[in-house]
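Hi P.,

Sorry for the delay on this. The queue was packed all week, but I finally got your sequence through. Input first:
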Amino acid sequence: MGQVTVLALRAVIATLLAGSLAVQTLMVPLLASDLDGLDERYAYVRTPLLAVVVLIVLAAQTVLICVWRLVTMARRGTVFSYAAFRYVHIVIGAFVAAALLVFTLGALLAPGEAVAPGVVLLVGGVGLAIVGIALVVLVLRMLLAQAVARELEASRMRAELAEVI
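Then the structure:
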């Protein structure tokens, strides 16, 4: 992996992490204060809504940190190893958790007339898109498994060839 690519990706990841920290420290308290003015009929949604937002941001941060680690492994040339699977599994789990949280958000917003039905449908579409991303990462995990198996086979064959020579 090229040095410029690694630096660019790390800059993007660092910016996204800083933005997510800003969301957690600045935007969530502002959202909480805005939700204080909710109609009595919808007051029950305040705490679960805030929890879902914080957990979605946490899932995104988890993905960013794991991608950072995978980029580091790719730069070192060690990404085709069993150690990479740990980070890939965490990424898949974080995407699945985020999708479940988005579906939960849709379920929280669905009853009553707090938001339009189209908004709930859009939230469901976002949840479905996140599930799709998790499935893409799962396919990439299968490709990683094939690459690791081939790398191990190539190492074995090189060792046998070295013995012959």
